Amino acid sequence: YGIIGNREKWIDYVLDYVAYVNDLELEKDIRQLTDKNIQTNSNQFVNFIHTNPNMTQIGVVFCTSKWSIINDQISIPCQSNQMPPYNKKVVMYTIFYNWTLFYRSPYLSGFGKNLQKDWVLLRLKTSIDNAIIDFFSKYDIQVASQILDLENQNNQSILDIDFKERIENVAQDFPFAYNRFTTGYDVVTTNGAFYFFIPIMINFIILINEILREKQKKLRHGNFFFFYILFKKGIMVMGMSHFSYWLSWNITGGILNGITCFIQVCSGILFRFDIFIKTPFLIMFAFLWIFSLSITQISFLITNICTDTANGYSVAYGFLLMSIVLEFFLTNNFFVYYLYREDADFFIIFLKNAFITYPAYHYSKIFGDIAFKSGKHYSVQESRWIDGKEYTYQDLFEPIAGKFTLPKESSYECPSTFQSFFHLFLTICIYFWLSVYSDHVFPNVKQISIFLFNYVLFLIRIGVLQNNLYFLFHLNIGIMSQDLKKANTVKREKRRVKANLNGKAETKGIRIIKMGKTYHKYPFGIKTSKDKVALNKIYLEIEGGELLAILGHNGAGKSTLINILTGLLSPTSGTAEMMGYDINTEMKEIQSIMGVCPQFDILWDELTAEEHLYLFSLLKGVPQNQVQTQIKNSLQQVSLLNVMRAQVGTYSGGMKRRVSLAISAIGNPKIIFMDEPTTGMDPKTRREIWEMIRNLKKDKVVVLTTHAMEEAEVLADRIVVVAGGELKCIGTPLYLKNHYSDGYRLNLVTDQQNVDYARIAIKQAIPSCKILDEKGGNIIACVPVIHLNELGNFFKIMENEATDKSIYNLKNIIKDWGLSHSTIEEVFMKITKAKKYLL
Questions:
Q1: Are residues 716 and 780 in the same domain?
Q2: Same-domain status, 746 and 730
Q3: Which region holds residue 579: left if phi is over 0, alpha if psi is between -120 and 50, else beta?
Q4: Taking Cα atoms as reference points, which of 219, 221, 237 lies closest to residue 565?
Q5: Could you say which of 677, 701, 735 is where a domain stops?
Q6: What's the CATH number where 562 sits?
């Protein structure tokens, strides 16, 4: 505050009064900006405001009788020195307030609207006025006269004022008008559709996350009622159908959403919401639950049509955001009713038909139908909110009709609530079918494509064209070319497959016919130069009782071939027969007679080894009285019988691998695929597993991929080397070593000074040998298989039977020697490193 003129008693009284009434402190909350006890002008007040912007909320200038105007730089209506003496009992003060701190213009109001004064300003004004009145009412006329006019203090006629009359100043706003639009407003009736929509969409995201997580980890699982067993992709290979898989997920989603909907309805009843109290429990629960099931089907569809998990999350959260935005509009049931106007134009009709396939549209309409009857709602006729009535089962079948008055009068007639229930249930069926169908069709899901309305495929399925199947698929199959060389193993295998195919020979194992797989950069088979060919026209036949080992470097196509044969991938071209079943049309039958040990262990850490085998034995149809026997036999073969009741999560990597092997052999399958089965095992366990695999192949077809060349050489009846998506050579281990290796290896150890003599003598004894290395007194020479007889000369030398004296002394300079056959690893390295593969 500031004082212009002399400081008088009433000013101090006013300051004390204002501080007391408003709970303020002098010198802290109330400060004097002009010098105390000095008669000053308004310059000090103005200078402080200018040098300290936005530091003062309210300023007060008190005017006394001895003040005179000095300048006009500030507008203060306090010119008491120019008034006649008899008017000097008028008390004057001016209030300044910082209007930049206040909200200047209400939201969306016109620019010409008056600015509102701060309520603190009005309160201060009232306090000052009351203080002035209170001060003067406490003194008699003589004292008041001295205070107001010292020069005329004895003029009784002028000062004829009754100051003892107590007066109080009060400020009060005009009362607000009664608002009939908000009185009785029910937020549950008006916006409840949005609030109860959110928990169901949270479940939608939960299911999406779980399914995409298993997709990312190559798992397939779902929760069966009252079971904690999780179903995975491994089970799909072991014979579980797509329908069963998605049915299990529907049970999982149904239970999860059922619990959520039950809590929602019970909460509505507990909090006494009209719509829940006046509506039968069954109607509200069924309405929310059916809607949640329809949203669940959309979550399944999204996980199937997305190419990878990143796209799946993007689409899922994008759908969630779109649904929330749409629900802002659909929550208002009049918006839904507006789409059913009788005079609706083309766009409104199109929008209504588009919404038919959107579950939340029917959800919002059903909620609006129920809320309009049972909840508090605004009555246009009465222009107020009225209470709802009891909602009965009969109301489900009542048509909904009415009139709009804005923007123009028009009538509307909506389907009954029961029809909306039916449409909601219909969306469940449609999206469930699309989910199962897309699980087969979309290539990103890596399943066998089954296209809609494929008449040829339908005829094949019922057996009409079964005998001509390969004629339709392979019209260009002809008799082999006569110029194929007998030693060319890949072409010879192709010749054998075609001959068996033309002769309609029975498939007792696996027959692969012109199989190809291309990973396209773009979906729906669009071909570009950036496509990757994983398999290129593979011909191969595996007989019953045979173990075939597939060798190849990483990315050669081994896992792709196994995945196609097990049904996890669909071939781009060609087909394969397994025990007479075609992989393109009869994969379900194939998986029922097949066991798989995948490259990576697909196990549940919470389950024991016994529980794993029990689950898969049930899936494979093992008789109940034989389940325990087979479980114990399988676990004994892999040396896990003593820990069969321990959780798999506590196993080492090698022990988990053995569980996967036991699972692949459960149920006595006719075909077993093993993708690197002994990875992570110690040498002792590896030997035991080799013995187990040798016993398994007696009456089965076993296909094994491995990076361990010794394992392939020990176990395999035939070995296939794959490189660049093509077969490079096929044959028994001995055949491959004889035809694709350098032959036998002769290792000699001698002194460094005798190396040259020994090398010359060896060339004389074995003319066809080739010196590979001669460092540090060690000489390594290879002898081709076709010149194996030349080794006889070397043996005679070492046995002192040589007749040529020039090489007789060779034995005397050789300290040690050894003869070995080439290994499969050498064959593999030679074939895969060659610039031009042997075909």
A1: no
A2: no
A3: left
A4: 237
A5: 735
A6: 3.40.50.300
Range of the domain at 574: 506-735
Whether 800 is covered by a domain: the verdict is yes
Q: Are residues 144 and 215 in the same domain?
A: no
What pLDDT digit, counting tens, does each position of 214-267 carry? Answer: 777 665 533 332 233 333 344 444 445 666 777 888 888 999 999 999 999 999
Residue 834 lies inside a defined structural domain of this protein: no
Contact 95, 58 (CB under 8 A): yes
* Helix (H) or strand (E) run with residue 597 in it: strand 594-597
User: Is 202 found in the same domain as 234?
Assistant: yes
Q: If DSSP states are collapsed to H, E and C, what string results for 294-331?
A: HHHHHHHHHHHHCCCHHHHHHHHHHHHHHHHHHHHHHC
Tokens of 600: 């990576």
The answer on 695 and 566 residing in a single domain is: yes
104 and 209 co-located in one domain: no
Could you tell me if 430 and 357 are in contact, meaning their C-beta atoms sit under 8 angstroms apart? yes
199, 327 contact by CB (below 8 A): no
- Taking only the tens place, the pLDDT of each residue in 38-69 is 555 556 667 777 777 777 778 887 776 544 44
Q: Which amino acid is at 174?
A: F
Bridge-based pairing of strands 726-731 and 718-723 is antiparallel
For residues 665 and 635, the answer to whether their CB atoms sit within 8 Å is no
Q: What is the percentage of the chain residues whose pLDDT exceeds 90?
A: 12
- 772, 782 contact by CB (below 8 A): yes
- The DSSP symbol for 341 reads B
- Asked if 516 and 535 touch (Cβ cutoff 8 Å), the reply is yes
Beta carbons of 676 and 706 less than 8 angstroms apart: yes
Express each pLDDT in 94-152 by its tens digit.
Answer: 787 776 655 444 444 444 444 555 667 778 888 888 888 877 776 655 555 555 554 44
| 302 located within any domain | yes
φ, ψ at 556 (rounded to 5°): -75, -25
Tell whether 143 and 245 lie within a shared domain: no
Indicate the residue among 439, 455, 479 that finishes a domain. Answer: 439
Distance, CA of 460 to CA of 372 (rounded, Å): 55
Does some domain include residue 601? Answer: yes
For residue 92, give both structure tokens. Answer: 């004057």
Q: Three-state DSSP class for 771?
A: strand
Residue whose entry in the numeric block shows the structure tokens 């200018």: 50
- H or E element, residue 287: helix 281-305
Tell me, what's the pLDDT at 72?
A: 46
Winning range, highest mean pLDDT, from 126-135, 471-480, 517-526: 126-135
- Give the distance, in angstroms, between the CA of residue 301 and the centroid of all CA atoms in the same chain: 13
CA distances (Å), origin 249, targets 317, 712, 764: 20, 40, 76
How many domains are contained in the chain? 4
199: pLDDT strictly greater than 90: yes
Closest CA to 745 of 818, 799, 810: 818
CB-based contact 597:660 (threshold 8 Å) = yes
Segment holding 355, helix H or strand E: helix 346-355
Distances (CA, A) of 657 to 310, 426, 669, 682: 30, 46, 19, 11
* Share in percent of the chain as helix, strand, coil (round to 5): 50, 15, 35
On whether both 633 and 720 belong to a single domain, the answer is: yes
Are the C-beta atoms of 426 and 417 separated by less than 8 Å?
no
**Locus of tokens 């610039």:** 835
